[in-house]
Amino acid sequence: MAAPELQQGTLDLLVLTTLHGGAMHGWGISRRIQSQSGDVLRVGQGSLYPALYRLEERGLIRASWGVSDEGRRAKFYQLSASGRRALAHETSAWRAYSGAVNLVLQGAGI
What is the rounded CA–CA span in Å between residue 46 and residue 25? Predict the structure, then answer.
């Protein structure tokens, strides 16, 4: 089964959720999402970095340069205060949405 294509809002929510645990660089964010999803969700650079730039532009995350565990210079991202508020709001909205979809599936006997 092919990995599902992530929609922009879903990817943004996953990135914010991942950064809730602390600052990370892009590769680490991608690996954490893949690992925590049981290798179902894979986020490529072509999707991840535009999402990071978009979230930074909206003021939901901040970026700073640092050194990765591998000793390489990397940009690290972390949640801003408005990012924490957005994460709380988006998490609530996601739970309501996914709950409603589950109700429809259950009603259909699936």
Answer: 15
